[in-house]
Amino acid sequence: MFGESLDTFCLNKHSLYLENIINYKSIKMKKLFFTIAFVIAISAQAQIHHYFYVDVEDEEKFEEVFEDYWLKVAQKAVDDGGIEGWSVWKKQRKTNNYKYLVLFNFKDMEQYTNDWGFDALKATGVPSKHIDFEWNIFRSDTYRVDSSVPGTYDFVVVNYSKPNDLNKQLKYEVEYITPVMKEMIANKYNGRTGWNVQHKIYPAGSEEKFTMFSVDGYASMADAIKSFDTEYGKDYYSGWNSIIKKVHGKKTMQQSLSNGFGYRPIYKRILRTN
Prior knowledge:
CATH architecture of the largest domain: 2-Layer Sandwich
Number of helices: 6
Radius of gyration: 19 Å
Shape: globular
Largest sheet: 8 strands, antiparallel, barrel
Strand order of the largest sheet: 3-5-4-11-8-10-9-7
Low-confidence stretches: 1-46
Structural class: alpha+beta
Number of domains: 2
């Protein structure tokens, strides 16, 4: 899978696009280590996020292996400066082809395209070939963080979309929505505790279903699920308009999401590096 010893995984610029890892179909892998980069971390410093979308049959075993083994490998990579951060997120109430997101955060493109420095044997003393476990990688994406309001959270609502004009929508999110989110989060409005917006770098093309997403961070599942409730939403949008008026006055700005969000799952963070 990686063309290297399973005990040492180093991703360099020649494998940036991960051709040997992902073919955008469900790929079964057994007795293999995979590193995964996702990016629902709301951090101004983690500018590049790489995501793997993963499905497994034995969720309990998956979480056990990742907590006992791969978390240590990831933490060693963080400590050595190969990556900025790593975490595992579990989709709540699985709705399609994957259950987990495992993600790496990178401070910039340079760090992303350098060796990640995953040395399983050095980090744990156990060769990865002894981890006998099977999972499916559904797909893999690379995103850039365009704007963020950092916060503390364990649940996120990810709002996937494909705007008619990506640049126009990003400008709207960065210049118009970011100060609104800062005001909302500072005042703990609607339970939201963090936010960011990201656009997809790779893969690209007209056949890509989504090209960007925004992330709403929450402290609890209850707060996250309320954002879907139409009754609760009446007060939410009333307050939203008030905050926009407070921040921008009469200033308006057009966005480019004619069809709204295409998909809005909730994820819970179950593992993370320090």
